Amino acid sequence: MKHLTIAPLFILAFANIAWGQDPVVYGQLRMSVDNASNSGDETTGSASSNGLEFIGGFNDYRTDGTIKASFGVTSDGGQTWSQVLVRPPAQYQTTVEGDPMSCYDPRTGTLFAGAIAFGGNGGVYLAKKNPGQNSFGTAVMCRVSGGADKEWVTAGPIPGNPNTTRLYIAYNEGVIRSDDLGATWTSPFSLGTGLGFLPRVGPNGEAYVTYWDTGYGIKFRKSLNGGVSWSSAITAASRLATWGVQSLYIPGNFRNPPIHTMAVNPVTGDLVIVWFDLTNTIGSNGNLDLYLIRSTDQGTTWTTPARLPFRPLNTVGDMIFPWVEFTKEGRLNLLAFDSSYTANQTDGVAHGFWDQIYVYSDDEGATWSQKFRLTPNSFDSYYDGRNTGFSFLGDYNGMGAASKWVFPVYCDTHTNQAEIYTNKVWDPIEPASSFSLFRGRLVSGITSDLFLRDGKAVVAKQGIVANSSEAPIQLDTTVTGIVNTSPSALKVQLWTMVNTVNIQQTVLMFNVNTNAWDTVDTRTAPTSATNTLVNVANPADYITPGSGTAKCRVMFKAVGPVTISDWAATLDQDVLLDYP
Amino acid sequence: MNRAGYWPLAGLLAVAFGALTLSGCGSSRQPSTGSASQTGGLSPEPDDPKEQLDQQRLAEATRGLSFQNGRVSVIKPVTKNRARSVALVSTAEEVTETDNTWFKSVGAFRDAVLADPTNPSAYEGLARGFLMEQMTDYAEAALRTAVALDPKFNKARFELGTVRQMTSDFQGAVNEWKQLIANAPDYPDVYARLAIASYYIHDYKAAYANLDEADRRMQSVPAQFRSLLKEAAPRP
Asked: Are A506 and A555 in contact, with CB atoms under 8 Å apart?
């Protein structure tokens, strides 16, 4: 086992206040720690709910001339890593094994890793990670087929029975499923022709598959009976342009097939599909951008494709290989290659300079955070480590999303060889699970309005008080399920305003050791929407171990003459922030 | 994912696959000057075990065919049997739909070609088999053969335009689709695709004209295209 030092780099912390709170993006961690690798590419990732267990898979070009499926594995939240080969049973092993896949079953806490053994006696195989250990159990052949190609796996409940797990693997020959955690599998249900069949499961067991028809179509099919039957294919979106394994629109000489990605919001059940496409041509350069569609009706209808605003429209540059995953809380996370950090690049040159970027959205892709650059420097696509005359950096990216933690998995060639890296990304926001007015009258608003600074707010007016010293507006929020009950830092993030002068705003936290409210901040309440960020000393005093519950109270009280007798307080955002 | 058919331009030049003709903005590549067995052995990446496997599959699936001068031909003369070829096309369609495995599909359509080398549908199917693995060079050769045999084979003509667009040959795509319109002005989405290809080569007047025609014929225009065209150039 290799031990790596994790250097937390708080790259950007509070810049993007319009969207609540930016994540903590830690420094780059190399996952391909096995020096028997020649290079690695084409990634996948999955993480346990608590973020402690994480696997990131990739094609591993061994120094013995074979290709294997490797997984970088951690069981301690990324403190230590192992690189583990995941192989099929001996009689199915071949010299070419790859196209890694992974998924997490939140019901049983099981992480799955698999790949394809290419060749006449090969097929699709899957193994279970041993809990708490950086190792896997014996792989099971899910389907023996010499023609199997590009597969992905997902897990979710059987419709109508939340206490079950059904695994789905979609690949070129169709969809297979397992109800016994991968021990046995059905025969494939053919989905017809296409490439890059990606399965996903909605919160109530809705099964979805999207794929590329190898032309202009981004196809979509669904099953509401647990994969027993599937709907006819619909075209969720039409591409502007299409190409084969390699477009000529990028700097560098490596494959970039137009495979797309899809994710299901576990909170709302909504779907998003993201792909890259040719936006325009400027001079001799074609410019590739990311596009997104969203469905709020289980894929029956889709929004108009939106070009994502990560590059100015009329500039030369490209973004490719997007990958999206939702966290348990509903944050949409996106990883992609981005050529825009190195200026004046020309399409088709041998040396293309790229970075990997991370962005997130808290409204299913309507608006986005700023870009977080994951790679310290642009890397040269030419140096994939294999010296074969052209580069191969994989055909897609991967990412694991836990509750709060996100693990992008990508290759970077800055060592003159394609290695696999991740950056731990921590979402510090702990939104309120409920709120109540200890004092005051509710004018408008619901709990979810306290999540973001987005104009949706809770508005309260003065209520009856026990005595004149009491604040007439006291809003209590309760946060439950905090995973990290001993954070290094705890903060209260507020966006508030009142409609009169001379109002005092006080923030209190409930001390679970003394069973009393502690005042953590007092200031004059703002008369225009203003951010308050309060550092809470001794964070562990305010989080109940086990339940991970914390309570916060925000009080408003007149301390001088007011201009409006029936004054009101508006809370646009009221969340806790915790840091590992 | 399979890597067969990955022939970047630099690789093509390095191993001198064959004639390289330039047309419009992009290139039209010819996959081979030799027989199928030669084709199978022409790997730009011989040391990659996956590439070796895919080249082996390609050689097997195209055995008996030659890809020369941008066309497909059979290596040994055969006795034409159209009825058998038609039946084999039908079988190949089933294989394609059920197995969705490129080398099985290519091999099945190859059999249909060998049964009757003058059957355009066999070549069109062969092209789709290649496109399952994004082998645009082979697909283009097969489609050129199909439309040479039947210049009014509309589906093959549309797909030939698509394949030329896939290789960044936008002007070539425009030319194919214009020929298709001459034969079949109501062919699905052809005006929509012409509009987009015209936009990429900065012929905005043609882009708007084709967009209008696509709308008039209620063709499927990617919704994101309208705003991009408007941003690039106001309607003339």
From this structure: yes
Which residue is it, tokens 């939240």?
Answer: A77
8 Å CB contact between A253 and A381: yes
**Lowest mean pLDDT across A49-53, A217-221, A238-242, A511-515:** A49-53
Q: Using alpha carbons, select from A99, A142, A100, A145 the residue that is nearest to residue A122.
A: A145
Domain count, chain A: 1
Domains for chain B: give ranges and CATH numbers. Answer: 9-187 (1.25.40.10)
Contact B49 A67 (CB under 8 A): yes
List A272's β-bridge partners, or say none: A263, A294
For residue A294, give the H/E element and its range.
strand A285-295
Task: Say if the Cβ atoms of B8 and A253 lie within 8 Å.
Answer: yes
Contact B157, B179 (CB under 8 A): yes
Please name every residue paired with A61 in a beta bridge, in sequence order, or none if there are none: A39, A67
- Structure tokens that stand for A390 in this block: 């052209």
What is the SS3 assignment for A372? strand
Element (H, E) at B87: helix B82-99
The reported pLDDT for the residue numbered A477 is 98
Alpha-carbon distance of A123 to A145, in angstroms, equals 5
Residue A259 lies in a domain: no
Best of A171, A193, A253, A321 to mutate (most B CBs within 10 Å, chain B): A193
The strand pairing partners of A295, in sequence order, are A271
Q: What is the mean pLDDT of chain B?
A: 84
A421 domain-assigned = no
pLDDT tens digit sequence for A431-478 = 999 999 999 999 999 999 998 888 899 999 999 999 999 999 999 999
Those residues with Cβ within 8 angstroms of residue A515's Cβ, 6 or more apart along the chain or in another chain:
none
Write the pLDDT tens digit of every residue in B32-74: 333 333 333 333 445 678 888 999 999 999 999 999 999 999 9
Residues of A in contact with B132 (CB under 8 A): 193, 195, 214
In tens, the pLDDT along A271-323 reads 999 999 999 999 999 999 999 999 999 999 999 999 999 999 999 999 999 99
Range of the domain at A477: 429-579
Is the CB of A278 less than 8 angstroms away from the CB of B11? no
Residues 6+ apart with CB under 8 A from B187: B154, B158, B180, B181
Give me chain A's average pLDDT, please.
Answer: 93
Candidates B169, B114, B108, B118; CA nearest to B145 is B118
| Mean of pLDDT values over A45-66 | 92
Give the per-residue SS3 of A296-310: CCCCCCCCCCEECCC
Gyration radius of chain A's alpha carbons: 25
Partner-chain contact B53 A96, CB within 8 Å: yes
Distance, in Å, from the CA atom of B132 to the CA atom of A196, rounded to the nearest integer, reads 11
Closest-CA residue of A relative to B103 is A147
Which of A175, A47, A176, A44 lies closest to A110, judged by CA?
A47
